[in-house]
Amino acid sequence: MIxxxxxPASAIEDIRTGFEAAGYICDRHIATSIYLSMKLDKPILVxxxxxxxxxxLAKASSEIFSSPLIRLQCYEGLDESKALYEWKYxxxxxxxxxxxxxLGDLLEGAVGLEESMEKxxxxxxxxxxxxxxxxxxxxQALKAEERTVLLIDEIDKADHEFEAYLLEILSDYQISVxxxxxxxxxxxxxxxxxxxxxxxxxxxxxxxxxxxxxxxxDTALERRIIQKRVPEIGxxxxxxxxxxxxxxxxxxxxxxxxxxxxxxxxxxxxxxHAEELDVDLVRNTLNILLKFEDDIDNMNSEVxxxxxxxxxxxx
Length: 315
What we know:
- The chain is α/β, with parallel strands linked by helices.
- The chain has three domains: 8-79 and 146-213, Rossmann fold; 85-132, no CATH class; 219-311.
- Helix content is 52%, strand content 12%.
- It has helices spanning 8-21, 28-40, 54-64, 80-83, 89-101, 103-106, 112-124, 137-143, 160-172, 203-207, 219-229, 235-248, 259-271, 279-289, 293-300, 303-311; strands at 44-47, 69-73, 85-87, 133-135, 149-153, 174-177, 181-184, 190-195, 210-213.
- The strands form three sheets. Strands 2-5-8-1-9 form a five-stranded parallel beta sheet, with helices on both faces. The protein has a two-stranded antiparallel sheet with strand order 3-4.
- A hairpin with a 3-residue loop joins strand 6 (174-177) and strand 7.
- The radius of gyration is 26 Å and the shape is elongated.
């Protein structure tokens, strides 16, 4: 169990080693951001290229802090009914039918229209109570009995208008439901917002968050990641494949290979019983790293040169 109510340096190191034990290799900068987020009760906006481990960071945090993960996947057109809450209209309709059948009993003893309306208004308020409220991911995180990890994934894919729905949650960990009032978090969640930088986030959203940028890893860090995630692969092959991927990332490609693709390629090479890189092997598996046919065609001619350079890499 990782405790953050201790000396900051020790707590940050515990977080870093906890991530490593969970299979997520990170540096002290990332561990420090997690510590500050929890101590300051501020969400983290995690930006960086696709596939560098932004979503995995939230998943690993859920594991090391033993907190349930609640995930909201963003997309164009996402609105509050899918993210915050919506009313259980079927249940409300059923309640209406019951009310209609019992109307005579309910109005028994009422004298005049005004008194009858007053009695009906008492029951009308029940239509918009929490028992008719369907909680979506954001509200689920606020109502949870224990602290959760709330992942708002790929926020840059949502519309600008959706960011306005988030501001109250990100600043005060509460939402306002017009028919009910304000619902505050029982336990403030650890909130991650991830972005692939497909569009700029608003200043209002950025002000409410700590900022964390995760770039592509350098050679040493990527080797450690592969060693942790694919431990069966040999040292020489690990050094070669990481060097090859690092060289690809400086090429003019439509999509650069991410860490997730490096891991997939390492598993592929292991499955094919490879001991070192060769031209045929790389060309036959290049589609694991590159996702556009133009990129694959352009790199095919460069494969021998990249392999020769990768083989110079020391273990």
